[in-house]
Design a protein that fits this description.
Layout: E1 2-6, H1 12-21, E2 25-29, H2 33-40, H3 52-59, E3 65-68, H4 71-76, E4 80-83, E5 88-89, E6 95-96, H5 98-110, E7 117-121, H6 129-142, E8 150-154, H7 164-170, E9 173-177, H8 180-193, E10 208-210, H9 214-244, H10 249-256, H11 279-286, H12 291-301, H13 303-314, E11 323-327, H14 342-352, E12 356-360, H15 366-371, E13 375-376, E14 385-388, E15 408-411, E16 425-428, E17 431-435
Parallel strand pairs: 1-2, 1-4, 2-3, 4-7, 7-8, 9-10, 11-12, 11-14, 12-13, 14-15, 15-16
Antiparallel strand pairs: 5-6, 8-9, 16-17
Helix pairs in contact: 1-3, 5-6, 9-11, 9-12, 13-14
């Protein structure tokens, strides 16, 4: 097949590589000329994705993967088009379809009736978007008819950055079409471009799952991520209560999860990233009466302020003039990404408490941290308050000696060893204060 992948970001580029590795001719379309240039040179445009660099170096010289800024031109030559363009959201996660609308217009210009092109959106969307937004837009701007001249399908990406190729094998590929023929063609497409691990734990087996409609596939992605947000919100509320009452919530969770009907997640300082804090809001956009989802989102959004409150209380009620260090700008350990990271709310809360804030992250250079408006911290410099925001593995062996003058530590990710902080007021979110 000839395949166009629209959007060569942290999901789109690995997808394009996966399709090319499966033996197909792939055009990667992106509006950023620098990204296109790097891909065509066989160079990864962003770090941290396992195997991406080696696969690019292998595939690009063979001609099986070519990048271009001409989306319409690539689409006009393709049997299938996979769209992984970002859906931007505001602070309340209200969708801004600007980039996706633009990409869809480019795709419409490239559609040819004789190709009977299969168009698949993988970007996570509010329920109904494929049918009610993309279908009429593609039909109007191409002059073609969906279901006859081209076929439209939704199939959500379900991978994590850093391990995309592993996750593509691990999880079933969900999809839903606007017509039975579109769904059939999409199933055949994914069976040719993906390979799946054995999953004896799944009654249905691993592979391509047709959910019967685009709306069901759209909701499935929102449901699986919203479940995680709600679960974490519950864990955070358990953690707050447990800490107030001298209970170790981690023992409680371990005990509860020892039977097969309980799957409580872990509490923590923040829920970040492109997915978990965002997709529940996209669900709420369709279903504003979902009070459980709303309450969990509010509970999780309040955790950075709660965590800083622990530091304020341990410091005697004020942080005026104290140097407070936030460990971790990334939203999670091992990933260089600040999308909806808890660092932003944590820094704001510390500043409101009067602290002089410094930020440390092993994945970011000083100048990169300064671009966010933060003064960088270096291990060994004086600090009175330390808050762990991201669970980078580099933080596991930290000790009080790494922070001269430290008197308060709040571990928002349960990654530090409290025995290394002798004489320090040491808090863990979800656990009562420990004076080491």
């Amino acid at each position: 097949m000839k395949i166009t992948v629209v959007g060569l970001g942290k999901i789109g580029l690995p997808l394009a590589v996966q399709f090319a590795k499966s033996g197909h001719e792939v055009f990667g379309a992106d509006v950023n000329p620098k990204v296109v240039e790097l891909v065509n040179a066989g160079t990864e445009p962003f770090p941290g994705e396992a195997h991406l660099a080696e696969y690019l170096a292998e595939l690009v010289p063979t001609g099986r993967l070519t990048a271009t800024t001409d989306t319409a031109g690539a689409v006009s030559k393709s049997d299938a088009v996979v769209v992984v363009v970002p859906l931007f959201v505001d602070d309340e996660a209200r969708p801004d379809f600007g980039w996706m609308d633009s990409a869809t217009s480019d795709i419409a210009r490239g559609l040819r009736a004789e190709n009977s092109t299969l168009v698949i959106y993988e970007t996570t969307l509010p329920v109904g978007t494929t049918r009610n937004r993309w279908k009429p837009k593609l039909e109007t701007e191409s002059g073609l008819k969906e279901g006859t001249d081209f076929h439209l399908v939704f199939s959500p990406e379900r991978v994590l950055t850093g391990r995309v190729f592993e996750d593509l094998r691990k999880y079933p590929k969900l999809l839903g079409g606007l017509t039975a023929e579109g769904a059939r063609r999409a199933s055949e497409f994914y069976e040719q471009v993906l390979q799946f691990d054995e999953r004896p734990d799944l009654d249905r087996g691993n592979g391509v799952w047709d959910l019967g409609s685009a709306e069901a596939a759209e909701m499935a992605k929102l449901a699986e991520t919203t479940y995680r947000d709600v679960n974490i919100g519950l864990a955070n509320q358990f953690g707050v209560y447990a800490a107030k009452n001298g209970i170790d919530v981690y023992q409680v969770i371990e005990a509860s999860n020892s039977q097969p009907y309980s799957h409580i997640h872990r509490p923590g300082i923040a829920v970040g990233g492109h997915c978990i804090p965002v997709y529940p809001r996209l669900y709420l956009w369709n279903d504003p009466e979902a009070t459980v989802v709303q309450a969990a989102r509010e509970a999780n959004a309040a955790m950075p302020s709660y965590t800083v409150g622990l530091a304020v209380g341990a410091a005697g009620g004020a942080l005026d003039g104290k140097v407070a260090v936030v460990l971790g700008a990334s939203y999670r350990g091992g990933v260089k990404e600040t999308a909806f990271s808890g660092v932003f709310a944590t820094v704001d809360a510390l500043r409101e408490a009067g602290a002089t804030v410094r930020v440390h992250d092993p994945m970011y250079a000083d100048d990169e941290l300064r671009e966010f408006g933060w003064e960088p911290y270096h291990r060994g410099e004086p600090a009175e308050v330390v808050i762990v925001q991201a669970d980078h593995p580099e933080y596991r062996d930290l000790a009080a000696s790494d922070f001269p003058g430290v008197c308060v530590v709040v571990d928002g990710r349960k990654i530090l060893d409290p025995e290394r902080f002798e004489g320090v007021a040491f808090h863990v979110v979800g656990r009562a204060n420990q004076e080491a």
